[in-house]
Amino acid sequence: MTFDSNYILEDIVSLFINVPVDLALNSIEKRWVHISTKINISKEEFVTVKFVLNSTFFTFNNKFYK
Question: How would residue 30 be classed by pLDDT, with cut points 50, 70 and 90?
């Protein structure tokens, strides 16, 4: 993908999915029977997604975003 050199990114926050961690974990818990048929790891391993959901950071124009 290329952008025109005059392209300005104004709304960086909207590019980042903002799903509440508790909602995501609750959804995993409710669907675990189905999820577990598609993967080969334990629920405990799978739920380490909690760490990922709580530790994603990036910077843009010298400003930090979580």
Answer: very high
